[in-house]
Design a protein that fits this description.
Layout: E1 3-8, H1 15-27, E2 30-36, H2 47-57, E3 64-69, H3 75-79, E4 84-89, H4 92-108, E5 113-118, H5 128-136, H6 147-175, H7 183-188
Parallel strand pairs: 1-2, 1-4, 2-3, 4-5
The structure holds 4'-phosphopantetheine.
């Protein structure tokens, strides 16, 4: 059985990621999508939220499984009896980092190969960061990810902004620091 793992942050998954997952699922018997739990970053979504989002978005592909992981990416193929790590390659700008990562992983796990799938042209510009940037400014997200993902992004950004507003309210009333900057509080007024 040919098993591949596809590690990434997926914060959130885009059409580009989904394209790579679907195409990998054609070439491998099983594709395990590993969602990195990285405590040093502050992602928009928790690792479990990202797993849930990806599970929903890939529910029509029976040989795809989504799971969280921590630590090194090479642990994923080891723990799941996989021979291959999949990565998407969008442009030359990805190449240096991806090559270095593949070579490092090869040193750490010589029995595991990295296979690059070139991202479909229509998604070559796309990233989770671009999606979030456009979302923050209220732009149209429909070309970036399916509605179930973009709706989750919009809702999460709204909730995050609400939390910051109420935090600012508490800060003001409790500490009475009048000159404290409070962008979200001002914006809400
Ligand atoms: O979706 P991303 O953020 O491009 O994915 C990057 C990821 C998760 C594949 C990479 O950061 C990673 O493998 N992190 C785990 C730590 C690791 O294995 N580092 C060694 C390879 S350089």
């Amino acid at each position: 059985m040919k098993i591949a793992v596809y590690p990434g942050s997926f914060d959130p998954a885009t059409y580009g990621h989904l394209d790579v997952i679907r195409r990998a699922a054609v070439s491998f018997d099983k594709v395990i999508v590993g969602v990195l739990h990285n405590s040093s970053k502050s992602p928009l979504f928790s690792v479990q939220e990202r797993v849930n989002i990806l599970e929903k978005a890939t529910r029509d592909v029976p040989n795809v499984e989504v799971k969280p992981f921590e630590g090194l990416s090479v642990n994923l193929p080891r723990e799941n009896h996989a021979q291959v790590i999949i990565r998407g390659l969008r442009a030359v700008t990805d190449f240096e980092y991806e090559l270095q990562m593949a070579q490092t992983n090869r040193v750490l796990a010589p029995d595991v190969d990295t296979v690059f799938l070139t991202t479909s042209l229509e998604y070559a510009y796309l990233s989770s960061t671009i999606l979030k940037e456009v979302a923050h400014f209220g732009g149209d997200l429909s070309k970036f990810a399916p509605a179930e993902i973009t709706d989750a992004v919009i809702e999460k950004i709204r909730l995050t902004a609400d939390k910051q507003i109420s935090y600012c309210h508490i800060e003001r009333t409790v500490t009475e620091i009048e000159n404290k900057e409070c962008i979200y509080y001002e914006a809400a007024e």
